[in-house]
Specification:
Number of helices: 10
Order of helices and strands: HHHHHEHEEHEEEEEHEEEHH
CATH architecture of the largest domain: 2-Layer Sandwich
Shape: flat
Largest sheet: 8 strands, mixed
């Protein structure tokens, strides 16, 4: 695991008592405390520079491109190392900016100007705090599959239209999150509900660390609200399950024999162009040994739908194998709850008050609209820290 170490955190602590004497102390002190709490994870930039120099020697070798696959892996690793080096430069620049504002405020005699400069100090600290938190999140994504894209499946629980509407709200939340993170999202399969919402949906979210960031979203999500479908305006509780698996790449070998597959084609449903409902472009693949069924109807081309469905099948088969290994570990620690539809991970309360609470990490948010519009970073980071602490806890004998 990467260990972060930089002097900015110590600098923030020296600022806090001084900022307490100003009219803006509440904002500045709160922000500096947050930054201090975020400073437990930093990287060794000098070691990263040494690694980068060694990689540059490999890239400059005339025989470097003889093995294309290996060369691509080296270039990808070089980018990761460059990001670490650039991060130190960014942190040093942010520290310098805060220090400059701090000294200007210290020398300023005019109270109004001094207060304005302290506001700038608070803004710079907040920006640095957010940057450090983002760095910490990246260092926590060290799992074997964390770097991969994610396949997210959403299904409503019992409750008919109410739960189906809640499932669609979750789908929208993850699509908004992906958009904000600059990740590509594609709804590869979706079944609409009779009145509203969805009966199920599968989304492919492509981009670096998509699976690692979303892995903690697997489980049951609970909603409490005044139902828009109840004429009596009563409060309802709805459930929907989210299941996240990595989209495995070609480096992971999963053998799927053609004789183990049953491939069915059918006409795609929903709104679309002239091709929809006239050509059997949708594909459903059944893996006979495991009983896994996947389907895709998003593309107009049957070939493309089949390709996407095969990726989903290979990913589910891979996850099945990983789950077998996890089961062996669970038997060693019977106190750990099994992953099932009843394992509620987060509650979203919209009435009579507004609060979103993660059962595992205890993180709470009152700005529910912001979260439902895709602001999940605080929950994601808290879960990654929670996962790290679980992994570092010695197994009970």
């Amino acid at each position: 695991m990467l260990i972060f170490h930089f002097p900015f955190c110590v600098f923030l602590c020296t600022l806090s008592p001084w900022l307490n004497t100003s009219k803006t102390s509440n904002t500045a002190t709160s922000t500096s405390k947050n930054a201090w709490n975020s400073c437990g994870v930093i990287f060794d930039a000098s070691a990263a520079r040494t690694q980068l120099a060694a990689i540059e020697e490999k890239v400059s070798d005339p025989n470097f491109w003889q093995d294309q696959e290996k060369a691509q892996g080296v270039l990808q690793h070089r980018k990761q190392i460059e990001d670490r080096v650039n991060a130190e430069d960014t942190l040093n620049r942010k520290m310098s900016d805060v220090e400059t504002y701090f000294h200007l405020a210290e020398e300023e005699k005019d109270d109004a100007q001094r207060a304005a400069l302290l506001e700038d100090v608070a803004k710079e600290i907040a920006a640095a705090d957010a940057y450090v938190s983002d760095l910490e999140t990246k260092t926590l994504l060290a799992g074997e599959n964390d770097r991969l894209s994610a396949i997210v499946t959403i299904k409503p629980g019992a409750g008919g239209t109410e739960s189906q509407d809640w499932a669609e709200m979750l789908l929208r939340m993850y699509l908004r999150w992906a958009e904000q993170k600059g990740l590509r999202s594609t709804v590869v399969d979706s079944t609409p509900g009779e009145e509203a919402g969805i009966k199920s949906a599968t989304v492919l979210i492509e981009g670096e660390n998509a699976y690692g960031m979303l892995s903690g979203e697997s489980g049951v999500h609970r909603l409490v609200r005044i139902s828009p479908f109840d004429q009596a305006a009563r409060r309802h509780t709805s459930f929907a399950s989210v299941f996240v698996i990595p989209e495995i790449d070609d480096e992971i070998e999963i053998n799927v024999r053609p004789e183990d597959l049953r491939v069915d084609t059918f006409r795609a449903g929903g709104h679309g162009g002239q091709n929809v409902n006239k050509v059997e472009s949708a594909v459903r693949i059944t893996h006979l040994p495991s009983g896994i069924v996947v389907q895709c109807q998003n593309e107009r081309s049957q070939h493309k739908n089949r390709e996407i469905a095969m990726k989903m099948l290979r990913s589910q088969l891979y996850e099945q194998e990983i789950e077998k290994r996890r089961e062996d570990l669970r038997k060693l620690d019977a106190s750990k709850p099994e992953i099932s539809f009843g394992s509620q991970i987060r509650s979203y309360t919209l009435q009579p008050y507004q609060l979103i609470k993660d059962v595992r990490t205890k993180v709470e948010r009152g700005d529910v609209d912001k979260v439902l519009n895709g602001d999940l970073d605080e929950f994601i980071r808290a879960y990654l820290l929670y996962r790290r602490d679980l992994d570092s806890t010695p197994a009970r004998k």
